[in-house]
Amino acid sequence: MLLKILKKIKKYGFLKVFIFSMKKIIRENKIRKLIKYGFQKKINLENFKTKMIFFYSIKEKEIFRNFYEKNISLKIDIVKSADKIIEHKFDLLGSDEVELGKNIKWNKDFKSGFAWENKFYRDIKIIDLENEADVKVPWELSRFQHLFTLGKAYWITNDLKYFKESKKEILDWIEKNPVYYGVNWTCTMDVAIRAVNLIFFYFHFQDLIEKDKGFFEKFNECLYQHGEYIYLNLEKSLELANNHYLSNLVGLIFLGIYFKDLKYKKPNKWLNFSLKEMEKEMFIQNNQDGTNYETSTSYHRLVLELVFYPTLLLKLNGLSFSNKYEKRLEKMVEFLAKITKSNGKIPLIGDVDNGRLIILSNYYNWEVNDVRNIISLGGEYFDNILLKEVGANEKEDKIWIFNSQKDYKGKFFKESIAFENGGYYLLQNSEIYCLIRCGELSLRGQGGHSHNDQLSIELNIDGEDFFIDTGTGVYTADKNIRNLFRSTRMHNTVSINGLEQNNFYEDKLFEMKEESFGRCLKFSENSFKGIHYGYINKIGSTHIREIILDRKTLNLIDLLDNNTGIINFNLEPKVEIIKLEQNNIVLRKNNVMLQIFIDNNSNYKILDNVISKKYGKIEKTKKIEIYFKNKSKIKVEVN
Q1: Distance CA 188, CA 233 (A)
Q2: Residue 181 DSSP one-character state
């Protein structure tokens, strides 16, 4: 114990360790008091009504109804989805559609059948790598992100059944998940996301909630307890924080504004604390070029939602972050816009867990790799023409957040660009899109959400994906799948003798200590050259990859130091293999043809493989393995 403390003091300094320890002791004492005296301390919220100004108001219901009358397909889909929610049919984390029955078991992973005992939250073992339970499933359901769809259906139809269902679920959840008890109180991030979604729910049904005084008081008590819990259980250590801590702060901002005019001091304390911390974390977690330091494009989307929605809410309520904060925020949206392919999708680099703060549209069928909804919102807020054009096909999110029905002509970014801080390099022209991953691992080398993807590429031709990142599979439900999908051979790069670019332990699913130290040696509008050192201490070899872009060709040169390597190309499942010759492979997807020319000193195999386009969903595909010694030259040509 003493040795650990001394190591922390050496790393962070005595004062920082002392202050952090004192804050932790104070919070622990407060939690002990709660254990001793009980958690259901009554807060007088009988006549409380928030003065928060929100994104939408029941006074505007007719505007929204008219919008959906003009967009009938959206209207039909929303009502159909809301009716499925009433039937308790859910498709979460790759489960496919599952009917949960009349009485929802909020503490159960309905995919594996495992249920967590309802006991004090700190006594619950949330992860057991020896079973197939995935704690993310009950957490995901208890985020209540489906309530937004019920609210939309109510505004469209005026049918009270959508309020009755929402109220019934919330009261049932409160009864079965008393504060600090059960698996749904074990992750502060999910507590915070739930609080945000409950506030969105309130503004859909405000008139009905406020007439139902008994429910209104219970609802406000529940929200207040969420705020108390979040503040006492912040997911922040001396180490660098991540999206979890950001979500904690977002929850406190929403709750702080919601309860701002309450006579109790705590909500203002939550708000002041979270504003200060959010301003700091924006620049710690998000790089100067707009990339996020978790090195995952899927988590970038989540983090963007976490830093974006509070910005808008604060402005509505007379508060704001700094101009510097907003400039960094705009850069974050621009990053996603610039890496969006002409099929409207982004590459899924690093971990993918389907994480969202709020789902405003397409509840059952939103796509993890389509982020144009948040891009379109960024276009409206920043009046940014690039963002408006890339997000042009998205309409529904804009009306809920900005009451905007403006239309824009779609256009995608078509230039080569480097994001050096984040380690993403994009070579592209009017036909070829090639994204290269080359940079540090997540959290400045800790590697929690990183994969072994140094010098890996994603290749899209004329809007059709050919070589893609294989995704994530799952996390703790199956450690073998987790480790497979973050391995080197599952990425479009060079693997050697089964070695990993960065070693990881099979039971430490969110650690991968930096060994590769990938860096770009040269970049221009038509060329890239990069190196990583992941094999240097294992077999004495670096890996250098050079890529040269021409109008209809892409040349790849891979160099090793006196070693035999395997070039991995993981194919999008709909890619057809048309012809196989000794040094020539012909691929087709829809009407796009691609030829791969391999040099005479190499040979190849076509193998079965798997990919995961979203968390929990695995499908079959093919991969190409090309075997070479020391040097390989490959030409990819568009026919």
Answers
A1: 6
A2: B
Q: Which residues of 85-120 are buried (b: 16+ CB within 10 A; e: fewer)?
A: bbebebebbbbeeeebeeebebbbbbbeebebebee
d(CA 32, CA 338): 49
Handedness of CA 573, 579, 582, 584 (dihedral sign): negative
Minimal CA–CA distance to 451: which of 433, 461, 437? 437
Write the pLDDT tens digit of every residue in 463-475: 999 999 999 999 9
Closest to 560 measured CA to CA, from 574, 541, 579, 587: 541
Positive/negative CA dihedral, 511, 514, 515, 520: positive
Residues 197-245 pLDDT 10s: 999 999 999 999 999 999 999 999 999 999 999 999 999 987 888 999 9
| Ranges in the chain, pLDDT < 70 | 1-8, 10-11, 35-42
What pLDDT, on a 0 to 100 scale, did the predictor assign at position 142? 98
Model confidence pTM above 0.85: yes
8 Å CB contact between 453 and 352: no
Tokens linked to 451: 């994969």
Residue 233 makes CB contacts below 8 A (sequence gap 6+) with: 27, 188, 191
**Closest C-alpha among 318, 307, 147, 115 to residue 219:** 147
| Complete DSSP assignment for 481-536 | HHHHHTSGGGSSSEE-TT--SS---TT-TT--------EEEEEETTEEEEEE-TTH
Q: List the one residue out of 513, 490, 487, 514 whose CA is nearest residue 500.
A: 487
The SS3 assignment for 605 reads strand
Round to whole Å and give the CA distance between 163 and 151: 7
Q: What torsion, rounded to 10 degrees, do the Cα atoms 336, 342, 343, 344 define?
A: 30
